[in-house]
Automatic annotation (TrEMBL):
Transmembrane segments: none annotated. This is Helix-turn-helix type 11 domain-containing protein. It holds the Pfam family WYL. Residues 81-145 form the WYL domain. It comes from the Bacteria. PROSITE patterns: WYL. InterPro entries: CBASS_pafABC_assoc_protein, WYL_dom.
């Protein structure tokens, strides 16, 4: 019965469509949180049943036309995400083990924000041991626990943390190149030696790669060793670079015959 467990939902047409699309995106892993596909699909089905017939048809038309690519990134445990959010709200320190290329380390931090960038979740916090701001990938955090120690929030270094972190990730990489990779997102993420940007599904067996690099040479090497076919969407300069590189390599191969 409507209202038995939740208050009746008074949704406008566009709000209902947005809600159903959001649930389907969650089912596909697009939120980056480990919500099971079954749970999200059940919620979408329940909402669909109470929609008026005309709105149900519109919603079905949108869903039939949209294809969500499965995320290739690790999914975050909702329990960990909730624990971090609670610590941020209560201004309580967190302790955890953090894994990175240099090996695991123990961290105690003052958590400030959760930020999602490129389908990954990051904790932005003041690291008490390093005495500086640090960002931590949530999928690399283990043994998370609240210490109970309160802290006074420090002024953040930027108003837009997402853009601040993007700039830090990109560093001096200022060249933007857009490619269509002839592989799905999961396959591309596994085969690319390094991802300097974002991957987004754009059809069956294809994905859009927006790369930010400091040189065309580096991107060329990464694409060559990945053995993924691709099409250059932007820029013309990168197309010219590939043509010149290809001609030079062909010339070298033919000269040895």
């Amino acid at each position: 019965m409507a209202g038995a467990a939740l208050p009746p939902l008074m949704l406008e047409d566009d709000e209902a469509i947005a809600t159903v699309l959001g649930l389907r995106l969650a089912a596909a892993g697009g939120t980056g949180i480990g919500l099971t596909a079954e749970s999200a699909e059940r919620a979408a089905a329940k909402l669909r049943r109470i929609l008026p017939a005309s709105l149900r048809r519109r919603t079905d038309e949108v869903l039939a036309a949209v294809e969500f690519g499965r995320s290739g990134h690790p999914q975050i445990n909702p329990t960990d995400l909730s624990a971090v959010a609670s610590a941020i709200a209560a201004h309580r320190c967190l302790a955890f083990a953090y894994s990175r290329k240099g090996g695991p380390s123990s961290r105690t931090v003052e958590p400030m924000r959760l930020v999602q960038i490129r389908q990954r979740w990051y904790l932005y916090a003041w690291d008490q041991g390093r005495q500086d701001w640090r960002n931590f990938r949530l999928d690399r955090i283990a043994d998370l626990r609240a210490t109970g120690t309160p802290f006074r929030p420090r002024p953040l270094p930027a108003d837009d943390l997402a853009e601040h972190l993007r700039a830090r990730f990109h560093g001096r990489k200022t060249i933007r190149t857009v490619l269509t990779l002839h592989a799905d997102v999961r396959d591309a993420a596994a085969r690319l030696h390094r991802i300097d940007g974002s991957l987004e599904a754009c059809g069956e067996g294809r994905c859009r790669y927006v790369a930010y690099v400091d040189s065309f040479e580096w991107l060329t090497v990464v694409l060559a060793v990945s053995d993924i076919d691709f099409t250059v969407d932007e820029t013309a300069e990168f197309r010219d670079h590939l043509v010149q590189t290809g001609q030079r390599l062909l010339g070298a191969a033919n000269a040895g015959r």
